[in-house]
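Dissemination and training. As part of the outreach component of the grant, students in the summer workshop were shown how a complex can be specified as a set of sequence lines and then modelled as a single object. The example used during the hands-on session is reproduced here so that future cohorts can follow it. Participants entered these lines:
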Amino acid sequence: MISYEFDYTRPDTVEAALDLLDDDSKILAGGHSLIPALKLRLSAPGKLIDIARIPSLKGIKMDGNELVIGAAATHSDILESDLIKQHLPMFAEGAALIGDPMIRHKGTLGGSLAHADPSADWPAMVLAAEGTVVVQSKTGTRSISSDDFFTGFYSTALESGEIITEIRFPIPAEGTKMTYQKFVQPASRFAIVGCAALRHPDGTARVAFTGVADAPFRDTAVENAVGDWSEEALEAAVALTAQGMEFNVDHYASETYRHHLARVYCRKALKALLY
Amino acid sequence: METTQLSRNTNTSKIDCIRTVTFTINGQSTQLQLPPWVSLLDALRHHLHLTGTKKGCDHGQCGACTVMCDGKRILSCLTLAVSKDQSSITTIEGIADNGELHPLQKAFIEYDAFQCGYCTPGQICSAVGMMQEGKAQNRAEVQELMSGNLCRCGANSQIIDAIMEVYIPETHE
Amino acid sequence: METINQKQQGKALSRLEGALKVTGAAQYAGEYSAPDLLYGHVVNSTIPKGKIQKIYTEEILKLPGIIEIFTHENRPSLAWFNFQYSDMDAPPGSPFRPLHDAEIKYYGQPVALVVAESFEEARFAASVLKIDYEKEAFTTNFTNQLDDARAPKRGFATLLKPLPPKPKGDFDKAFDESPVQVSADDYYHGTEHHNPMEMHATTTMFEGEGKLTIYDKTQGTVNSQLYVANVFGLSFKDVRVIAPYVGGAFGSGLQPQYQLFMSVMAALELKRSVRVTLTRAQMYTFGHRPPTLQQIKVAAEMDGKITALHHKATAETSRFEDYTEVVVNWGNILYPVENTKLDYELVPVDVYSPLDMRAPGGSTGLHPLECALDELAYELKMDPLDLRLKNYAEQDDSENRPFSSKELKECYLQGAEKFGWYNRSPQPRSMRRGNRLVGYGMATGIWESMTLPAKAEATLTKEGKFRVRSAVTDIGTGTLTVMTQIAADALGVGLDEVEFEYGDSKMPFAPIQGGSYTVSTVGSAVVAACQALRKRLLKIAQKANGSLFETASESKVSLTNGHLSLSEKPDVAVSFQELLTVSGKRMIKASKTNIPNPLTLKKYTRAAHSAAFVEVEVDEELGVINVTRALTAVAAGTIVNPKTARSQIVGGMVWGISKALREETITDHRLGRYMNPNLAEYHIPVHADIHDLDVIFVEEKDDIVNPLGSKGLGEIGIVALPPAIANAVFHATGKRIHQLPIHFDMLL
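and obtained this result:
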């Protein structure tokens, strides 16, 4: 149970949810980040607005040259989706590494992005796949590039009164390769280090990390160094991994070890894109 | 923060918060009057006295509270009961068929897949879900897909043995 | 003609309570309900040391549903003397008294109990109860206080946990003069918590007229009963403690924990039934396996004969009790050494008292010992197993007395054979599988086989069935099943003719369930009670039909098909119903206390032994260690039930893997509190971490240890695993890691 009292509503539309949303309320989707936070009193909103069943937030679809994942799509929806397997296979690969099957059945992409846990898996993949976070408020909708979305420790560009409705991805060109590689914390199964990497057919790359620092980040130094993807170039890129970052430090991984892991996982990811 | 909390909650009339939740539990339509902050786990254990579903951490870290909800295994401790209005829930009490144990239940007994028995309901519900998902192709994948369910007695190998016996009998010695 | 009942012992029976556990029907302590049940939630201190200045209960009491808040200021007056708070497992010192006064002795100390009509109300109110504290200076890091190290106090608990023997020979001289020496002073083990899957809970049913029925999570119903009666000044007969199913304990239930106190206090004061269930975080606010620092020095002649052994352990304890465990005594029981120096010291700091946790002491002390032997073998260029065989103890050198039985050599040989030990190439870093290094390691295990006094009762019921009773619990060890097998054999009847009832303080006395002594202790009492019942039945038969049974003795009669008959002449029989009629009673009972003969037992060292063999794979790039297979060969006397016995050993092996590679409670010494009191940050192995585990039980006959010849299995499965894993990691990587658990980054 949760150790304080709050109100709960389950509106049928995003608009109805926005009408209810105020400074004392929180959006509930899968609840797998929010409910533990409520139980620990890290957060204590007076009202929960459950959007998990709003139909318009659920699907995964093509829209022109974009792939659109609804904010309330669960990790297992993404894992199962044929569209994802076809166009963003890294997302299926990554979804299979999140928590355990019970968590995957309830946790959502939108919830994970809004919560912005520094060790969560999705942020790295969304950054690497050039995702755009679409948010809606009473005044309309706006699109936030993933490059601008993650602003710090558990913080995002999401403003009060806004709900994430979907995440849009450019459909990768034929021949694009992508992977998500993760060193898992053995008990919580969060990422001690996660590296998402994408290689365009022209050889340019997007490489993003989670777990390494207080917020997920794109590593442009690595991206710029992959060059012709020769072994030397990749080693040079790996050597630049997370340069100048302030590393997360906890009992399971010191700064040195985490930096080491980031390099190892950067190498694993880049090498997975070679063939 | 604590004092503001306190004042707001004392001013809230609790009656306003009570919701009617209707769900099917183990095939039986069930209605409960509950405030929104009651987890599905506590609704089962305290309000319906279905104590077969266990609380091992209350934070989604141990799997002891696993139940089947609309055909999927979920953690009842991280689920608000009110959010499962109109859902169909199967708990360990509903796994056997009219007194005839489910093959997994029989295999758990035969393989000694538990000692204290406290994680067992969650392990079995999770294994039912894992089998329905049908993803695991071999023992290692079964182990991986069952790893959200902790066992402190160390019956891990026997649990996987029991599941393998039912799930992929031909590959199991 | 039907033969005498088949022997039930030795059969691989499935657990008799299995169907209840797999259907969710088995009820645990916090799952019993009453119509007027109240819920208590405990509030814990948020400072490690100091005084409570003020508890703001007034505003909280106004919240809906709140019945009462108990604190040190309004608790009922309780027993005065320390001994009244002592239980069967209390260490020497002053037992912790919940809500005793304003003093805070450790972080997380229970300081208030909020009681409400609903669980939700209690927990909410507990979460907003404001408390002012006066903080005092504290220290929780015993390694910073080594100057305070001192010998432990002696007391009741140290009777079962002997302190180290006196030095022998001249260690320093022998060590210095020996050609090969191994020495290390950096063996460190972190704090561990039991973390049974079921959190501690007590439901106290207020029965009126001063009577209480208490469903408690405990390893000793009588121990909890004794504690409650003493502390609350109740008559023993008014306190009934029931522990029907116990969701694991591993030592956490050896002593009454504070949820019992809280639940009973509230029930007595409010005259209502009260349930108190702890949270997972609160499971870190009472006993733990203490952190330890150990030194070891071993020296040998060139031929491998060990000449000198020094083993010293320094362990954490609380400020109020001297918790001890047997850490350093094992070396000279396992290996004959003429010059020994064994020391054990404690350092008190501001924490709760440590508490026995599965294989207390043994799982701590065997790690340095068996790793030092491995190092010695490498120094000597000898196979580590050959070194153990070279120093094989035919008798217990530390006490200069024989073993009651010891088939350790068979464990070594059969284990090595099945594991393929001699297939390894001895050179470290010489074995690989793909990009992973592979290592083999082995170690020896030992655990003392104790027998304590216990009583049991056997009854022929009016239905003509047998019922055997003991207050003992079944914490998942298989006690119900095994005792039923023992009782069936002792009575000479089939399994379905006998029912074992347990887990209730109203039943005949059994000590707390721990230390691997339950089969030995309770099993011996069950045998004695069953034999007493057979005698009584024969006596009644003689009364009923004197001439026919006149010359018969207890061992010459059978209890089959509802009749007592002569084994030799089955047609000379009298029905159970007739025996009941003649006795003039509704049932025929016999009870017996088994008290082991201390004089006989003193002549022998009684211990179970094991040899563990482990294969690890190490990913050098990541430092990740995987135990790919492990085998434990065990010599533990008669195995009553090979199925549940195997599970005990395998479970112990998982604990050994966990201790070596996973679990540790981490303290923030600046705040004096544990940092990872949850299952996401306190690592225990998951299914994907556990691979091929194998068990061999070698044959071992023991007529001395107890009438069953059985030595107990709860701890012997763990003790050898951590050193075997550390030795395998060395073989794989060439690195000696002396700290447990071994962290990923230590190998980089």
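The two ends of chain A are 50 Å apart (CA to CA). Students were then asked to discuss how this feature might be tested experimentally.
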